[in-house]
Amino acid sequence: MDPQAAENEIGKLKKEINYHNHRYYVLDDPEISDAGYDRLFRRLEEIEGRFPDLITTDSPTQRVGAPPLTKFEPATHTIPMLSLSNAFDEKDVVEFDRRIKKFLRRENEILYAVEPKLDGVAVELVYSDGIFLVGSTRGDGITGENITQNLKTIKSIPLTLIRREGMGMPSRLAVRGEVCLGVSAFKKLNRKRIEEGEPPFANPRNAAAGSLRQLDSNVTAKRPLDCLCYGIGDVLGVNFTTHQEILHMLSCWGFKVTRHVRSCSGTKEIIDYYRHIMTIREELPYEIDGLVIKVDDRILQERLGEISRSPRWAMAYKFPATQETTKIKDIIVQVGRTGALTPVAIMEPVIVGGAEVGRASLHNQDEIDKKDIRIGDTVVIQRAGDVIPEVVKVIISKRDGREKKFRISQCPVCKTRAQRLEGEAVHRCLRLSCPAKLKESIKHFVSKRAMDIDGLGDKIVNQLVDTKLVKDIADLYSLTREDLEGLERLAEKSAGNILAAIRNSKNTSLSRLIYALGIRHVGDHLAKLLAERYHDLKKLGEATREDMEEIYEIGPQVASSVAEFFSQEANQRVIDKLLSSGIIFCPQEKTDDREFKGKNFLFTGTLSSFSRDEAKREVEKRGGRVTSSLSSKTGFLVAGGGPGSKLAKAQSLGINILKEQEFIDLLRMETGDGKN
Ligand code: IVH
Hints:
This protein is an alpha+beta fold. The chain is globular. 2-(butylsulfanyl)adenosine binds at residues 82-84, 115, 117-118, 122, 138, 178, 230-231, 292, 311, 314, 316.
């Protein structure tokens, strides 16, 4: 291949990949299979590998793989990024509209564009001649941080603007948007973090902010972030007459834009729309904390201008905060499987946003110190959606001097001094034989995706450890009927069932066992990759860090964690004991993502963890098809809440019916949790 031919093909491939990328990540409407996409991508990588001079910054291959930074450079916004003033009720909205009319000396209704206020992290994306140049955080509104490399990993941010006939191409375009993590992606990320012994994020916004603030963009790349654009900064070469035209043009150039923008004439329509969005809020894929009301006409916007860093032409109309005040009765410390010590506030129970809340995670010592939270304090707590309740702030004026400061000093169970490892915010109990850690390790070991031992609930596990019948996970395999029958409230029949479940679990796969060991950072997906490479626990134990890092998805952190785990003599002893208890490995379950090939799915009713599009994408990623009508070819009917007539019809046809949770379980079984 000569350089000219290479350049031509690279140009074609980039265009094609960008096209499919846009269909998948922005329009939620893919046209080709994952395998087809991968083929194009690999071909591009191959040619670029042979002609490295032809690699451009906007090549799809350049989204990942940049070396970590030592710090973020400052980035200045040519036009400051303003903030919004807030309306909290209808009266505030009426007042906002009245002020605008008065300022403009107008009597007739103003046309507003009303759209969701996304709860994420504000960013600015600058394009020069259609190519993504710099991306930054808001910072103080004038100067933020240059996080270009992290933003490039977000697939819904175009690296090159789409050119369309009859539509201008600005020589410079600054786009503003919000980087968010979808509610279901957030839940999945937290589940994974808990499994891997990491503290969970309090809410999607914190998770998005934490993911963007990474000096190593390869970490950001693993988080399924999304970017929804809602406005512009400085632009050269194109004019817009209305806000809705801006949104339309952004969408044409390839940006993801909310589908929930509505034209409202006057306040009544705004209030009606607000009520409507309130009713569908829980179904939206992203967390929103209100609406933004914007004067649609750009000339009027300009006339209105700004006042003290907020535009006069826009306002946030916030949802009622799901906040309450209550009192902290105590602070306890929970011990995780990896020894992470998490402080938890025990509070006088209150109803927040419809649910009773009596506990809130305080995350770590820094968080307690930053907010100066003490036992006995009256605090404001908050619950957003179904995220973990959090303490927002202390009401200092309610203190009477009897409040007690709190420090994490020791493991509450084994009393070992708490340690804080370098670079970590959490304290840990590092004692190998800590019974609290052991209990958590056993709960993980027996869980569904690990050894799948049914019947060993938390109460029984606690008793097994407290009575010293089980001193490590391998001891489960030498339990006898007498041991179990000696426990409280355990019927003879269930002792037999548990023993059978323990026996059955010996027939397992290597990946399940690796996952079950509970090595930090090793979730079930990475466990599969390790099993596929080493085929044998002994070989994995002997593997060097460098060797493990040869596996595409395994980085230095995971490799060190695995090596460290196997280097501990106590762990080696447990592994030897496990292997000599007669565990048999079945052939490895392959990480094949085309498992649904030839299967047709049909959805009815509302799903709570997915939008229809997301569910469809999950099926299609695995090679299955989603159809809209029921026929004898329908393999599965997935029934969400409030299913329609399809459910009864499917029942009469004898079609497999899955509840939402069963569908989720099926997805997990097929690919593990590591895929997004
Ligand atoms: S417009 C000059 N639209 O809210 C107008 N902001 O308090 C500035 N936000 O920093 C923003 N969704 O991060 C606008 N649809 C939306 C928004 C939105 C979320 C955030 C944005 C901004 C903050 C303003």
